[in-house]
Amino acid sequence: MKIIVQRNLKRQIHTYYNMEDYITGETRRPGRIEVVCGSMFSGKTEELIRRMKRAKFARQRLIIFKPVIDTRYSAEDVVSHDRNAITSVPVKTAKEILEHANEVDVVGIDEAQFFDDDIIEVCNTLANRGIRVIIAGLDMDYKSKPFGPMPQLLAIADDVLKVHAICMHCGNHAYVSHRKVDVDGQVMLGEKTEYEPLCRECYKKEMARTQGYVSKLF
Ligand SMILES: [Zn+2]
Fold first, then answer.
1. What H or E segment, with its residue span, contains residue 195?
2. What average pLDDT does the chain have?
3. In the chain, fewer beta carbons within 10 Å around the N or the C end?
4. Which residues contact 3 (CB under 8 A, 6 or more apart)?
5. Alpha-carbon gap, residue 186 to 55, rounded angstroms
6. Which residues of the chain have pLDDT under 50?
7. Cα separation, 128 vs 101, whole angstroms
């Protein structure tokens, strides 16, 4: 009796997966890399969490990693700006991800721009093991330069989604996270007091107004 019940359950789950694929267009094809990138306040982490929650709902085994550098809210949660949290494992280096990513179907990586370059090899290794890897990260830093390993991650990804915040000055699609405070250095964690999403035109104007070096940047 027990065996029959288990078989039926397996069949039900199998049918559910197929239905899910059919409805959403998402596939359960294992071993793939997905990147969600954009400026700050563009909804990257929300999209990562949405995909992870769907995977959890489909009874897949999942784990989320983030670099220890991002301690803005909590050491153990991936927290998006709307405080929609999923528990995560903070790691110091990209290689640590391989140590923790055992017996899982889906690996989420948040704030990927802060990881070292090993993250590229790590993501390929995971995907080659048959794991779905979903990465969220800033595509550019506050100087509108590609951020850390993100360009390489975009290159090796099977699927890329670029999300956009709204320009705080004009309401168009933003493309960069403008740092409002006069502090140098690529890594400076902050929120809306320190950063604002701007479109290309408004960013150019802002640079000309505050720095006077628009010709160097563009
Ligand atoms: Zn604008």
1. strand 195-198
2. 83
3. N
4. none
5. 33
6. 1, 5, 13-25, 218
7. 13
Distance between Cα 136 and ligand 1 center (Å): 24
Per the CB < 8 A criterion, the answer to whether 160 and 154 are in contact is yes
Looking at residue 15, its pLDDT comes to 46
Gap from CA of 198 to ligand 1 centroid (Å): 5
Report pLDDT for 114: 95
pLDDT for res 123: 98
Give the helix/strand (H/E) hosting 10: helix 2-24
Query: Hey, what domains does the chain have and what are their CATH numbers?
Result: 33-164 (3.40.50.300)
- How far apart are alpha carbons 65 and 112 in whole angstroms? 9
Using the mean position of ligand 1's atoms as its centre, give its distance from the Cα of residue 41 in Å: 15
What pLDDT does 192 receive?
76
The angle formed by the CA atoms of residues 125, 128 and 130, to the nearest 5 degrees, is 120
Q: Catalytic site residue 111?
A: yes
Of the candidates 96, 111, 121, 194, the residue annotated as catalytic is 111
Residues 109 and 90: their CA atoms lie apart, in Å, by 10
Burial class (CB in 10 A: 0-12, 13-18, 19+), 67: buried
